[in-house]
Write the structure tokens for this entry.
Amino acid sequence: MNEERRRELGQFLRDRRAHLVRAEHGLPPIGRNRTLGLRREEVAAFAAVSVTWYTWLEQGRDINASRQVLAAIGRVLRLSASENGYLLAMGGYAPLPMAEVAPMDAVPPHLQGLLDALDFPAFAVAPDWGIAGWNNAYECLYSRIADVDSSERNLLWLIFSDPQLRRMLPDWEDTSRFFVAEFRAEAGPRLGSMAHTALVAKLEAHSAEFAKIWAEHGVQGFASRQRVFIHPAVGELTFEQHRLVPADAPELHFVLYVPTPGTPTTDRLAALATIHDSRAQ
């Protein structure tokens, strides 16, 4: 376990411990009003490990934790499946991607052809969350994508840096928090790599909101969900967001915005395409 990963593991454990509800563990409040947060010695006792050893783990010291012990700690902290997977990954017990991910500015031609064949917005995300490809419907939805410099064509960066995209998301606060938690779940194992460290530092310097959310150490696996956009030209668009992984390019994730049945989204996408084509002429 490298130093960066040990430090991240310790911070993650401290954050989760601080948010535990004491009554749910059969423990009384600390003092008169404090009902949240377990002490280190309490977590250690529930997990059947020594207080000293658990303290060292939270401090990011160079110690070895078995899968069984980490699983026991995860149960005490009542981690979700995604959080538990992240805990094991930080401990070196889950498959980890390579530390460095080569920049990817374009998807393979046959996969770009698949994107182009879809009549609803879709784009491809690289391991570093760079947007490597998209179709015409997505460009109609988010017209700036073609003009953004490739160095800044990163999904997480755009969510926190582009005022136009923010205005289009009526639930920006929830969406941004979802994205940060998903990004940490997927990219966290690459902690310490130059590209990952640089992106996080850039976001923290640019956005106090990102820095605050990142410091919360939220972890969440991807889940299909409804997405709503307010487009300045056609109004509200409602989609079901799904994600697919090509079998021959598992490093890519295809994000699909499928129009929600029973809404005017399909007709409004067609109107958007007409507007986009007229501007391109």
